[in-house]
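Batch 3, record 17
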Amino acid sequence: MESSAWAAWSVALPLAAAAVAIGGWRAGRVAAYLTAIIAPVLAFGTLRAVQEAGPLRHPLGGWGAPLGIELHVDGLSALMLAATAVVGAATTLYAGAYFNRTTGRWFWLVWLLLWTSLNGVFVSDDVFNLYVMLELLGLSAVALVALAATRDATVAAMRYFLVSMAGSLLFLLGIALLYARYGTLSLTLLGLVAEPDAASLLALSVMTLGMMAKTAIFPLHAWLPPAHASAPTPASAVLSGLVVKASFYVLLRLWLQVFGVSGGGFEAALLVLGALGAGAVLWGSVLALRQRTIKLLIAYSTVAQLGYLFILFPLIAVAGPWAETAWQGGVYQVVSHACAKASMFLAAGSMVKAVGADRLPALAGIGHRLPISFTAFGIGGLSLVGMPPSGGFIAKWLLLSAALGSGNWIWALVLVLGSLLAAGYVFLVLRHAFEWSPEATRPTHPVPRRMEAAALLLALVALGLGFVAAPPLDLLGPLPGAP
Amino acid sequence: MSAALLYALTGALLFSTGLFGLLARRHLLRKIIAINVMASGAFLVLIAAPGPMPDGAADPVPQAMVLTGIVVAVSATALGLGLALRLREKTGRSTLPEDHPR
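Prediction for the assembled complex:
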């Protein structure tokens, strides 16, 4: 296979599987299992190809830009494809045991479409393709939440739909402004010609606002916790682990690749983004500490962990090598949080299924009854706190070094406070899980072994990311747009 | 004022009107219509944004984008209306309950 075709296959595979999934529960499950086996192979093939040959470019059907659609995979895209494949495969394994023929009738179709659009976002090289993929992503994410069919899930899905649509349309308006100004849609070409004039800055502002709403960054986060908490558990895992990262990925492309903000001139705007990130870390963590149900607690922790990603922005504007350290830390936070958070949601789903309730006190003694899920939750939690050895430790260590090394101690303070608060809400769950209570003697509903294995698998990946940080960080390459 | 600028300003006005409606109106049908008004506004700005074309020929790229955008907007509207119907079934209302973070 021509090496540049990897990108096309990573979109075509889940799309073909989604077409098969229209056939029903059984067909969908087979198609999703096959995707779960092949997608990681494709993703790691892409990683190797990028490692050997550098960024890949693929003109779809031989029609390149500016008339055709061009796909582009660099180190960042390849890492996102790999994270999606790993989280996607584990979630698929889990979902096969979580749903039955009735509850899962539409799950496979919607989930495979979501998988298609995630990969589509990560390989697109033009802003309009990004828009279409983001819309497909948003609509399938909303549909996944609505699959829970409860009152709470319906309300949350409706609110998610409105926010997601407003976000995409702001992005579309930005595309119109960029096209009017530069006459091109290609991210690569825009990166060469974009200047910080009034029209371009207006475009950047509306697109950023739209993507911030979709990423649920503080103070636009209110829609996220109810949506992620009330969705079916496999959906919660991919929504928190992957979907919110897709719009953050678009922000990285816009700010770093197109506008090259690390080169200077955007310091004030980057400070504002960082301040919102700090707000998210602190406020999200405080709200997570106040939750009384496990899935809402994990969802508020997502709000907090997304804040770390935005602290990346002020840290890339500093001179010297620390900007690159921050860039590596930010991307590593995306990847390690994807694995850790998905594993925590999957493990929490198993615990809730076992005791038939989602209140924290109801989980008393769950550590003895579901040791595998409990271990997975604990490891995921360690990564969130940033304790070694875990992917979260590497990510937070890099961000912290960048903050201290460049003398921005205020961001370092936020990072440390965030970790302390994260330790607080993770131990809030662990405390109940260790506790003995009369409720602990209640009979446990059986939890399929596959569900527990899927959560543990992701937790081990999150842990492993703490041991093998060098190859992915090498692959990521230098900070785009650096002087 | 050139025709393109007129289109662009009308588009921006429509977009803002839609955004206001989405934020200010409580009935879900109004919110969904407001989203469609926003989309139409964005489409008008796109149509007003032709690339460099020789001797006044129409640039096909924005038109292709708007066609695609219309398809997306129709699908999104269908999903939104479906959700609004289900919300009415579950809660008996066509507005979102204004809950606060718990």
